[in-house]
Amino acid sequence: MFNLDPVRILMALPAVLIGLSFHEFAHAFASDRLGDPTPRNQGRLTLSPLPHIDIIGLILIALAGFGWAKPVQVNTSYYKNPKRDDIIVSLAGPFMNLVLAFVFTVLFKVAIDFNASSYTGGGLYDIILNMLYYAIQINIMLFVFNLIPIPPLDGFHVLSNVISARGYRLIYTLQQYGSIILILIVVTPVSRYIISPPIKFLLNGMLSLMGIV
């Protein structure tokens, strides 16, 4: 499950920092635009990684491929439509990662075409290609992982806003045991069955869209 290859970790680290920072910035920006000054007041309306990084989540995503950043705090009482607006804010982060994955896929395609036309290769060029590929993978992972309906992930906020009052027991159970469930998903092979299939589907889909086989 854990990949301790230092070269892979170093090449993936820039993509991790970009993916996490843009993810949390998207939450902060959406909440700010919907009238909530909390993220701005707490210094989260920035693309700088420093206010967003959770050290444990950063280490996990570098070693295991799954992790998280420091959640952006919001105050839903500022929203005109609290349930709807909280869903918008919750989805802003994952969909920012999906957009980033597409952008990096385009750059990956440009880099491949550049190599084909100039016959370059090896050394720095291969490093750049690997970094772009990791950036695609990591941002797709962040998109999929954060949509899992387990606290404190974004998918749970969406679920808690759309589920009926009858689902209170489910929400309460997830709140009680969410951290344990999340750890089990990250450190056990269960992630291969829950997270890996949609990640591979989206990755292959984006590469195919750009004509990359």
UniProtKB/TrEMBL annotation:
Keyword Acyltransferase recorded: no
UniProt entry tagged with the keyword Zinc: yes
A Pfam family reported for this protein in Swiss-Prot or TrEMBL: Peptidase_M50
Molecular function via GO: metal ion binding; metallopeptidase activity
UniProt superkingdom: Bacteria
Stored CDD domains: S2P-M50_like_1 (cd06158)
Principal location: membrane
Domain Peptidase M50: 14-174
Cross-referenced InterPro entries: Metallopeptidase_M50B, Peptidase_M50, Rip2-like
Recorded GO CC terms: plasma membrane
Membrane topology: Multi-pass membrane protein
Keywords: Cell membrane, Hydrolase, Membrane, Metal-binding, Metalloprotease, Protease, Transmembrane, Transmembrane helix, Zinc
Cofactor(s) it depends on: Zn(2+)
Compartment list: Cell membrane
Sequence intervals crossing the membrane: 52-69, 89-112, 132-153, 174-195
One GO term of the biological process aspect: proteolysis
Family the entry assigns: Belongs to the peptidase M50B family.
Entry protein name: Zn-dependent protease
Species of the source: Anaerobacterium chartisolvens
